Amino acid sequence: MTTAQPPETEEPDSEEPGAEEPGTDEPGTVRPGGRTARVRAAVLRAAGDALAEHGFAQLDLADIARRAGVGKTTVYRRWGTVTGLLADLLADMARTSPRTETGSLLGDLEANARLVRRTLADPRQGRLFRAVIAAATCDERTAAALHRFYESRIAEWEPCARQAVERGELPQGTDTHEVIRAVSAPLYYRLLATGAPLDEESAHRAAQAAYAAACAGAYVREHTGVYEAQG
Amino acid sequence: MTTAQPPETEEPDSEEPGAEEPGTDEPGTVRPGGRTARVRAAVLRAAGDALAEHGFAQLDLADIARRAGVGKTTVYRRWGTVTGLLADLLADMARTSPRTETGSLLGDLEANARLVRRTLADPRQGRLFRAVIAAATCDERTAAALHRFYESRIAEWEPCARQAVERGELPQGTDTHEVIRAVSAPLYYRLLATGAPLDEESAHRAAQAAYAAACAGAYVREHTGVYEAQG
DNA sequence: GTACTAACGGAACTACGGTTCCATTAAGAC
DNA sequence: GTCTTAATGGAACCGTAGTTCCGTTAGTAC
């Protein structure tokens, strides 16, 4: 959100074979320094603000351009659509922040639950997440960026579950990523589906439930050997 | 979705005190018979189809009117906005369908998990749910309709958990609604956030995890007496 | 059956999100 | 410093989602 670097680097080369000139790049790739970088940072910042205020549907790029102090032509040229901009914003949000370590699995799960709850319950962040998730339901690129975002967040916390397996606290064969996901799931379900409050107790329950289920072997990989990989 | 009856009956009388004429009702309330009912049914059906095909953002009411064989003026007059129409659609979806009863809590939770998984994994239904949830992030009325929808679905399955408490299978003081919600949560988390596949194993895990957590007392109401009610 | 009018629907209209054009600014190479 | 041209931004433009107008259709009362 603060600094900026080239986005959309994972573009799969070309959508249709033999389109336009082969070497033509997106704007912003040849001279990514000074102004270009400032524009990108300002626009992503403004996009986050606008999303948090209006939500996904009521959003138009002209408003974002105005907030960013940038011409709307620039925004349309660089990102094209609201969902395209959000995909870039998600890539920017995906950079990991160091997690706390409490030494015990239950303690780490509680810490994770509190962090997720606090993020989703925060007015600005909560709206931002809801908006981004809504956008992902409308656009494949945004959805892919969202999945990468959660992959990186889950991977960041997974070691605490893996260590618990290694020291015998959780059963052998436990899908450790799934343990971490289990902490977030009930909190997101409240945020998006039921609208139940995201209070401290909901976070505590989420961590306790994930821990109890993991100990009972609910996340041990079963039958098929298909789901070995992280998935 | 098939039959139709007056929607928006839970309208809180008037938004602003002293607006327009006091007795003027929404169109469709004075002569709700024949044509009006057919129009409503056709439009809701078409809205579901269009949502499943295009998603929430790419939707316009003129297209829905065309599919329904109805004038677009009528759609705008009756529902006004996409989110307003979706709120009505959700009210229509909220009517409960009888659930299966297997006699054991784990069996019922498994049945619920399979039902939810099948619904969300179905191409049409899955898109429909994602679209409706996306719409709910953008509009308060739609969000309220969505919450009512899940309230009714959860309430439909809650008895199996309550009976389990009564016969001592689950601890006294367990929040039985929360047990049911715990089954859906990981499946919705996959659908909306991580994009992980909604396969049979995910449903099995969801039920197993909810059961294990409930047995371990993770859903027992704690500390504060504030959360006695269903919430 | 007739009368009354709620509700519908086609067509013209409006407003605004999104695009195109081109002059201006400044990044990067030397 | 100069030169080249990538990138920006204002202004005019366009297409379509959403509105208004008003004549037509058909529920409901009698």
Automatic annotation (TrEMBL), chains A, B:
Keywords, ordered alphabetically: DNA-binding, Transcription, Transcription regulation
Pfam families: TetR_C_11 (PF16859), TetR_N (PF00440)
Entry keyword Translocase: no
Renumbered residue ranges of the record's region Disordered: 1-35
InterPro entries the UniProt entry points to: Homeodomain-like_sf, HTH-type_TetR-like_transc_reg, HTH_TetR, Tet_transcr_reg_TetR-rel_C_sf, TetR_C
Origin superkingdom: Bacteria
GO MF annotation, one: transcription cis-regulatory region binding
DNA-binding region range list: 60-79
Positions with biased composition (Acidic residues): 8-24
Residue ranges of every copy of the HTH tetR-type domain listed in the record: 37-97
Protein name, per record: TetR/AcrR family transcriptional regulator
